[in-house]
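User: I need a structural model of Antibiotic biosynthesis monooxygenase from Duganella vulcania for a docking pre-check later this week. Nothing fancy, just the predicted structure tokens so I can convert them on my end. Input:
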Amino acid sequence: MPELIVVATLTAKPGHEAVLKAALERVVPPSRAEAGCLRYDLHFDLEHPGRFVVLEAWRDAEALEFHLTTPHFLELVKTIDGLADAQMLKLNQLV
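Assistant: Understood. Predicted structure tokens for Antibiotic biosynthesis monooxygenase:
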């Protein structure tokens, strides 16, 4: 089964850029430590301050589902609720 790729884009609402950045930085180390995590990299958009992109690779869908239930991910969701807009793409590589 191919790994599951996730591209998560989070855009802070005006005035909440620092809170979003700090919350995202906190979730990286414990996410990388998860058994099913193959990649978890946080990036910032050079052309749009306040927009962050997380590039993730998971062993499989079950590993991602586990991640979405972890205390560090749930704390991220709670912290940024109402402070940012988020989009998530789930991808499998074709070639």
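Before docking, keep this in mind: Helices lie at 17-32, 61-67, 71-80.
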